[in-house]
Amino acid sequence: MKNAPSLRSVAITGTGKYVPERILTNEDLRQMVDTSDEWITTRTGIKKRRIAAANEATSDLASAAARQALENADVAAADLDLIVVGTVTPDMAFPATACFVQKELGATKATCFDVSGACSGFLYGLEIARGYIASGMAEKALVIGADKLSGIIDWTDRNTCVLFGDGAGAAVLEAAKDGGGEVVSTYSGSDGSLDEILNVPAGGSRCPLTSENVDSKLNTMKMAGREVYRHAVTTMVSAAKEAITRAGLTPKDIACFIPHQANLRIIETIAHKLDMPMERFFVNLTEYGNTSAAAVAIALDEAQRSGRIKRGDYILMVVFGGGLTWASSVIRW
Ligand code: COA
């Protein structure tokens, strides 16, 4: 995707997050599958993840994160023109999860739709909302990354079940006023020829849900771990460089890198390839695992609320997901 023409500058004016209460530790997983805290920690860095309650839908996670973001931005839900939810675990095939969020928040004048970009869904949504606001089609937008991956995990498959968790992160976007939070650059891309290395085979029109498919667990996530790992590194390094170049910067200008929270070893390799110290990278996957579209949005919220990023800092978000998809964005905080 080309960089948006600078019709008018767009800013993130508030962020929020929600993670479910229930914590699933590596020790808990050891009792479910043939694994160990040592294996999970050394191969991924993950210690815990959050699991949504049976009666918590993706839109519930999304709405809780959205409320925080709206409060942080001091924006009323009724003033939103656009709600975009990045998710691969929608409440239903339709209506869009964004419509459920609209109902929950009372955002009556917003146009609402979902983006299916897997783990890249939040940054895809950010790029879309930026375009709407930059062009004047919208004044105030809410972008959410939310996933309840626990519902599409095969809890008997140790290759995947240790990696993921549930959560939601949100950001409010408006035309920039004083420069704070300005979206300086965005970049995104996809490679549909790599669909088979990370997907959920059944449940759509290609392979409908039947009792046989469910018995074969085709409605759960399938992943070729090593291949995904390799592509995650190469695409996130090139996407990071592209957003930084589009911003007219070099990696050393970035005060805080907020990468997709999939695996600590992937993040360390990216840091090495960008020749940047790990201290510049924000990492919270230890606590939450990989929360898909929510991951960078939760990390952005935590980075700003903890004071890890300060007004004027350049920050870089970069993500990668099934599709394949990837995206990146530089923000001047
Ligand atoms: N506990 C214990 N052993 C496990 C295990 C677990 N939870 N999961 C896999 N193993 C085993 C494998 O079966 C394999 O055993 P074998 O050698 O007897 O066949 C062994 O550990 C090594 O597997 P390997 O695939 O080489 O491990 P790895 O170092 O590549 O790490 C991942 C596996 C999944 C952690 C890693 O490939 C990864 O993070 N990939 C990217 C995943 C990702 O980011 N997905 C989401 C993208 S948005």
Molecular structure report:
This protein is α/β, with parallel strands linked by helices and 333 residues long. Strands 1-7-6-4-5 form a five-stranded mixed β-sheet, sandwiched between helices. The chain has a four-stranded mixed β-sheet with strand order 8-13-12-11, with helices on both faces. 32% of the residues lie in helices and 24% in strands. It has helices at 26-30, 37-44, 58-73, 97-105, 121-134, 158-161, 211-215, 225-246, 264-273, 285-288, 295-305; strands at residues 10-18, 22-25, 48-51, 82-86, 111-115, 140-148, 166-175, 182-190, 198-199, 222-223, 254-259, 314-321, 325-332. It is globular. It has two domains: 10-175, Peroxisomal Thiolase, Chain A, domain 1; 182-332, Peroxisomal Thiolase, Chain A, domain 1, CATH 3.40.47.10. Coenzyme A binds at residues 35, 39-40, 43-44, 119, 158-159, 162-163, 223, 225-226, 228-229, 232, 262-263, 290, 320-321.
Explain briefly what this protein structure is.
This protein has helices spanning 26-30, 37-44, 58-73, 97-105, 121-134, 158-161, 211-215, 225-246, 264-273, 285-288, 295-305; strands at residues 10-18, 22-25, 48-51, 82-86, 111-115, 140-148, 166-175, 182-190, 198-199, 222-223, 254-259, 314-321, 325-332. The chain is an alpha/beta fold and 333 residues long. The chain folds into 2 domains: 10-175, Thiolase/Chalcone synthase (Peroxisomal Thiolase, Chain A, domain 1, 3-Layer(aba) Sandwich), CATH 3.40.47; 182-332, Peroxisomal Thiolase, Chain A, domain 1, CATH 3.40.47.
